[in-house]
Amino acid sequence: MTEVTDALAQQVWDFVYAHDAAYDRAAQTAGLSAAQACLLEHLAGDGRAMGDLAEELLCDASNVTQLVSRLEARGLVARVPDPTDRRIKRVSITTAGRRVRRTVRQAFEFPSERLGLLTEQEQRQLSELLAKVLAPDRPLG
Amino acid sequence: MTEVTDALAQQVWDFVYAHDAAYDRAAQTAGLSAAQACLLEHLAGDGRAMGDLAEELLCDASNVTQLVSRLEARGLVARVPDPTDRRIKRVSITTAGRRVRRTVRQAFEFPSERLGLLTEQEQRQLSELLAKVLAPDRPLG
DNA sequence: CCCTTTGGTTGAGTGACTAAAGTTTCGCGC
DNA sequence: GCGCGAAACTTTAGTCACTCAACCAAAGGG
Fold first, then answer.
1. CATH says B3-111 is which class?
2. Is A44 exposed, middle or buried (0-12, 13-18, 19+ CB in 10 A)?
3. Considering only CB atoms, which chain B residues are within 8 Å of A2?
């Protein structure tokens, strides 16, 4: 572990801020909050159980309840009961939801506009550096 | 502008997420929210005007009013009237505030624990890449 | 001196989030 | 097959961050 200059830490901060702000803006163009867009992004094909979503999003189940309720109210998502376990409600994305999700993805220009400033080789370099930084990241889940 | 792989975008996402989460945790160890810690970090020596803070933090003035009120209630910050312009209130950090700020800084282990995983040369590399990515970033302020 | 602008606060409203207390359903042990 | 604890989700209550619109007070220029 080497010394880390404040300058680098500051650059990282700015980078993170820019990324966050860009995603916020992208979600907003579709009339969503970042959290809502993020949830939409986590919906696989057949519909995920609320509990699974809470686990993936690292937040409370009741939070997911509310997020889903808001999205459902806009018709972007539907709660479908699981046929084999009536406790479970699976969240599935609607056609409108898929459309909105596409809008958000296209509006999120950070990867193309920012990361795209790097050459292919630089992107590989960045990828390697990030991999190293995030190295032992998931021995906790 | 080259193609950007989803894999790199995902790595960046994870990196940003880890950074955000780390700062949240650091603030929480001092009983603060990230926004409160962030405000504390923006307090220069002699005290900054509310409006300047709002501009720096890129948020509404009334938001700053509330953040400062909460921090003031905890004695971490004080509103001092400007002697030359009675409209202006300058926010200055108290001794307790400085202590809490130090706590947050020390608890924010992301730079040392994560960026510190890189060698000095790799850090320079990362710095250059970030500089390129953030290149034309402030022609809008 | 009005009159406008500037600096800050208040109030109303939304959304994200958490913690605690429900409700319904499942499934196990007996 | 019944009772009971656990699982899955919801409800309620509360906090915080944030925005917008309306507001008050001081400054400053005609």
1. mainly alpha
2. exposed
3. 116, 118-120, 123
